[in-house]
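Notes from hallway chat w/ T.B., transcribed later so I don't forget. T.B. wanted the structure written out for a chain they're using in a teaching module, and asked if we could keep both sequence and structure tokens in one place. Agreed to drop them here.
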Amino acid sequence: MSIGDKAKNKAEQATGQAKETTGRATGDDDLKAEGKADQANAHTKQAGEKVKDAAKEVKDGFKS
């Protein structure tokens, strides 16, 4: 996972947490749901990047 991708995913996760918290505090269920969706999206991207990293490590292991 590149550092840029990791930073983007963490930023998206933080934005989602902020939206969820704001939605909860203001009683805005739509904003709360949007925040949860942003967080889920960020987690999915992070998982995909981890799979790519693991596959790359396996591939590199066969080169040695």
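Follow-up for T.B.: The CA atoms of residues 1 and 51 lie 9 Å apart. Might be a good example for the class.
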